[in-house]
């Protein structure tokens, strides 16, 4: 359960309030505001606040006095131009503030993105909830045999049951001991800041995370990618859906140039030119290593 009834009621009450404003608003984002979008078994992403829209990107790019927008197609063309030519600062004029609930091991990957502002739930001050990420059957997989940094075949039957049982019972046991160790009225016990060290990395934490659109796109490019770990990728995919509603033109350009596009080396580009001229290009005469060639073939094969 990502939300308690009290938390859900607080969100409903906040969503019921509206305030007239002269600031730009994005209709798609207004719909999303405050709602918790569930991710994994107990996690969520919800938008707490945002600044700007597609027009704000154009306004900054043109350093306009008024709204700065021209026709929709003109603005879309400008946004595509900015994205294509890595003219990134206009995208930094848009900001988003998210409330994210996520397992600690996902938070460790997420926090590596340094160009954001973070405030995390304090487990020195508060007692953590008994909530642990336990993978669904379709995410319970063995080590990949081809990729050292990935997973391969799904676990089934007795093997899946054995692993799940260990994950669940270890989490519960660690939490029972955490609770039993805490200082309470009847015992000296341990401070919250110390007792928490006994908890496993699949316990959930929460934070507010604020980032500008340029750096958010960088995060999404890396974390919504197929090479990212599933457990962070599902958060990135949820954020992608939110961003698509917030700044539709910018997100479309991002999908096209960054998510869907590829960077080619000069060597790879040369190979394509030779192929277009009808030359038979192989790994041996390409100038690329076996690994590079495999990835290059993957790009050409779609
Ligand atoms: C698939 C995948 C596997 C990974 N595997 C590992 C791993 O095995 N081990 C590991 O430790 N990490 C790993 N990482 C994390 C990765 O190395 C980066 O730390 C992470 O993706 C954040 O990227 P970033 O630094 O570009 O992002 P941000 O911190 O958001 O920075 C954005 C950009 O700002 C600039 N920038 C920010 N801070 C500085 C700075 N101090 N100095 C100079 N420029 C700066 C850089 O241009 C940077 O690209 C992995 C990431 C991915 C996506």
UniProtKB/TrEMBL annotation:
Alphabetized HAMAP family for the sequence: ThyX (MF_01408)
Q: Which InterPro entries does the record match to this protein?
A: Thymidylate_synthase_ThyX (IPR003669), Thymidylate_synthase_ThyX_sf (IPR036098)
Q: Tell me the cofactor note.
A: Binds 4 FAD per tetramer. Each FAD binding site is formed by three monomers.
What EC number(s) would the UniProt record show? 2.1.1.148
Q: Which family does it belong to?
A: Belongs to the thymidylate synthase ThyX family.
Q: What does this protein do?
A: Catalyzes the reductive methylation of 2'-deoxyuridine-5'-monophosphate (dUMP) to 2'-deoxythymidine-5'-monophosphate (dTMP) while utilizing 5,10-methylenetetrahydrofolate (mTHF) as the methyl donor, and NADPH and FADH(2) as the reductant.
Kindly name one Pfam family recorded for this protein: Thy1
Q: Which UniProt keywords apply?
A: FAD, Flavoprotein, Methyltransferase, NADP, Nucleotide biosynthesis, Transferase
SUPFAM superfamilies noted in UniProt = Thymidylate synthase-complementing protein Thy1
Q: In which pathway does it act?
A: Pyrimidine metabolism; dTTP biosynthesis
* Catalytic activity, as annotated: dUMP + (6R)-5,10-methylene-5,6,7,8-tetrahydrofolate + NADPH + H(+) = dTMP + (6S)-5,6,7,8-tetrahydrofolate + NADP(+)
The UniProt entry, under PANTHER family, shows: FLAVIN-DEPENDENT THYMIDYLATE SYNTHASE (PTHR34934:SF1)
Q: What does UniProt list as catalytic?
A: 223
Name of this chain's protein: Flavin-dependent thymidylate synthase
Q: Say if the entry is tagged with keyword DNA damage.
A: no
Subunit comment: Homotetramer.
Positions with a binding annotation for dUMP:
109-112, 120-124, 196, 223
Q: What terms describe the molecular function in GO for this protein?
A: flavin adenine dinucleotide binding; NADPH binding; thymidylate synthase (FAD) activity; thymidylate synthase activity
Give the GO terms filed under biological process for this record.
dTMP biosynthetic process; dTTP biosynthetic process; methylation
Q: What cofactor does this protein call for?
A: FAD
Where is the stretch described as Disordered?
1-27
Which residues are listed for FAD binding in this entry? 89, 112-114, 120, 212-214, 218
Q: What is the lineage of its organism?
A: Bacteria, Pseudomonadati, Pseudomonadota, Alphaproteobacteria, Rhodobacterales
């Amino acid at each position: 359960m990502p939300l308690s009834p009290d938390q859900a009621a607080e969100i409903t009450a906040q969503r019921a309030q509206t305030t007239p404003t002269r600031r730009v608003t994005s209709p798609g984002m207004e719909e999303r505001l405050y709602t918790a979008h569930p991710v994994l078994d107990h996690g969520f992403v919800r938008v707490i606040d945002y600044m700007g829209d597609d027009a704000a990107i154009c306004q900054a790019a043109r350093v306009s006095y008024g709204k700065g927008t021209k026709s929709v197609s003109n603005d879309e063309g400008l946004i595509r131009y900015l994205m294509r030519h890595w003219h990134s600062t206009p995208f930094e004029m848009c900001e988003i503030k998210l409330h994210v609930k996520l397992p600690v091991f996902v938070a460790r990957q997420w926090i590596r993105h340094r160009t954001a502002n973070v405030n995390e739930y304090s487990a020195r001050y508060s007692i953590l909830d008994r909530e642990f990420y336990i993978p669904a059957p379709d995410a319970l997989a063995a080590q990949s045999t081809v990729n050292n940094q990935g997973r391969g075949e799904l676990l089934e039957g007795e093997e899946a049951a054995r692993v799940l049982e260990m994950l669940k019972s270890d989490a519960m046991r660690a939490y029972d001991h955490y609770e039993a160790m805490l200082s309470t009225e009847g015992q000296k016990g341990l401070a919250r800041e110390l007792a928490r060290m006994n908890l496993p990395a699949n316990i959930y934490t929460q934070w507010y995370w604020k980032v500008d659109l340029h750096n958010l796109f960088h995060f999404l490019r890396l974390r919504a990618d197929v090479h990212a770990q599933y457990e962070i990728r599902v958060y990135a995919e949820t954020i992608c859906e939110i961003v698509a509603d917030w700044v539709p033109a910018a997100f479309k350009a991002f999908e096209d140039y960054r998510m869907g596009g590829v960077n080619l080396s000069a060597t790879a580009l040369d190979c394509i030119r030779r192929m277009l001229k009808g030359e038979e290009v192989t790994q041996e005469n390409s100038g690329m290593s076996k690994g590079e060639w495999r990835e290059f073939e993957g790009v050409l094969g779609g």
